[in-house]
Amino acid sequence: MPENAAIYCRLSYAPDGSVEKVERQEADCRALADRLGWPISEQHIYSDNSRSAWQRNRKRPRWDAMLEAIERGEIDSIIVWHGDRLIRQPWDLELLLKLADDRRLHLASISGTRDLNSEDDRFILRIEAAQACKASADTSRRVTRGWQARAERGQSIGGGKRPFGFGVDTGRTGRTGKPIYDTDQQVPEEAAIAREAIARLRAGQSKGGVVRWLNTVSTTTQGNLWTNRNLDQLIASPRIAGLIEYRGVLREAVWDPIISREEWEDVKLILARQAEEYPYPGRERRWLLTNVATCHSCAVGVKIKPTGGRNRPESRLYFCKNPKCSAPVGRNQKHLDRYVEGRVLRRLQDPDLMDEVLAPDPGVAEEIAALERRREHLKASFAKLADDPDLDPEVMAGQLAKLRQRIGELRTRHATNSRQRLLARMAGITREQWEATPIDVRSSTVAALFQVVILPATWRGPGFDPASVRMEPI
Questions:
Q1: Whole-Å CA distances, 277 to 61, 75, 270, 413, 444
Q2: How far lies 60's CA from each of 68, 83, 116, 468, in Å?
Q3: Could you state, in order of their start, the residue ranges of all structural domains in the chain?
Q4: Nearest 5°: phi and psi at 141?
Q5: pTM reported for the whole predicted model
Q6: C-alpha of 457 from chain center
């Protein structure tokens, strides 16, 4: 007769943290222990809530704790609501049997009791574990096939959080009590905000600036503030372009796009270029020339620091922070900003220069989108014909390689287009309009027009010496 029985409970799906069902399992297990006359060891009640036993890589902390208690000899029997709450993988059963080899470990459930040291009971348990494993695999296969079928029809797949811009409340609730949304329908107010955010990015505003704007007009679907990360997720999702991706293949979706596919490709290229040029954006930009102007000696971007002191008003100084620089420089922030802004505004007013800089190169994003569609079509066709003996794999690979090369060339050309769009927006701007423009857009404009190099000062005293700054047109 067992002397110290443990209770193990498990619920596979409880995303809301509910413990009601595992508490019911525990109550039924205690009732079974009373009928069997097995004393319960109160310090050995184990519950794994919202934990799958089918996925071998999924951790079950309380299951592991129970195995350790068995190994220490603290418990000699286990009561579980049903066998599939304890094990759904033959691997788990073999671990349990290995521990039971030197102990008279008993197992009881609503469906009956088992002696883990009995070869007959071990045989039955192995059959039950194999059946449970197959049932889980069958369920997974049906769900996966269902998702694939939905993707092929262009419908939403899976669950998760409601995507921004989509999800009309159906008035129904799921098993967790949360509302069910029709994510194939747009939310007009959110869709308009998403379009405006993407238009701002395409016009040259930085990602940080767009995030700050978003936080003045909306929250995420979870009610949280926007961050660079969830803005990236919004843009990276094919959903906003009326597409659905499943296992690396893009298909036309049933919902209306928020932006065109060409606009989607365009904004992704812009963010990729920004990420390459500015891998870590750092804090919110406050100064025009930090990391834009460079030191003449080491070519490192300058930083800013306060200066001044007793009986002198505080000012700011652009300075070289490179400790290895042989001749670091510094320059008054207000004076340098004013001089650089004057040069930039004059250049933006130059019609001849603008005609050259803004020479049209249309259709790059459209051509990239068309080539991406062609590549996806070829990949899907090759997958269907993979076993065709008349199809040469080298020819297939060669066609895909040519497409990849052409797409890469167009992406390189697009870097110029990004600069053109920014300068097209800023061309002819007045001083008042310039000062009303976000600081990150102004800074990007300076970087698009000039390479600003701070030189050693040629005089001391008040005022600003234009000879101490070199502005090389780009």
A1: 44, 61, 11, 16, 11
A2: 13, 16, 21, 66
A3: 5-138, 179-277, 285-349+428-474, 357-424
A4: -65, -40
A5: 0.44
A6: 47
What CATH topology corresponds to 5-138?
Rossmann fold (3.40.50)
Gap between the Cα atoms of 417 and 424, Å rounded: 10
Whether residue 94 contacts residue 56, with contact meaning beta carbons closer than 8 Å, is answered with no
- Burial class of residue 452 (count of CB atoms within 10 Å of its CB; 0-12, 13-18, 19+): buried
Least reliable range by pLDDT among 197-206, 253-262, 459-468: 459-468
CATH number of 179-277: 3.90.1750.20
pLDDT 10s digits, 76-127: 888 887 766 666 567 677 777 777 776 778 888 876 777 666 788 778 778 8
Tens-place pLDDT, residues 429-443: 889 989 988 888 899
The secondary structure of the chain, three-state, reads: CCCCEEEEEEECCCCCCCCHHHHHHHHHHHHHHHHHCCCEEEEEEEEEECCCCCCCCCCCHHHHHHHHHHHCCCCCEEEECCHHHHCCCHHHHHHHHHHHCCCCCEEEECCEEEECCCHHHHHHHHHHHHHHHHHHHHHHHHHHHHHHHHHHCCCCCCCCCCCCCEEEEEEEECCCCCEEEEEEEECHHHHHHHHHHHHHHHHCCCHHHHHHHHHHHCCCCCCCCCCHHHHHHHHHCHHHHCEEEECCEEEECCCCCCCCHHHHHHHHHHHHHHHHHCCCCCCCCCCCCCCCCEECCCCCECEEEEEEECCEEEEEEEECCCCCCCCCCEEEHHHHHHHHHHHHHHHHCCHHHHHHHCCCCCCHHHHHHHHHHHHHHHHHHHHHCCCCCCCCHHHHHHHHHHHHHHHHHHHHHHHHHHHHHHHHHHCCCCHHHHHHCCHHHHHHHHHHHEEEEECCCCCCCCCCCHHHEEEEEC
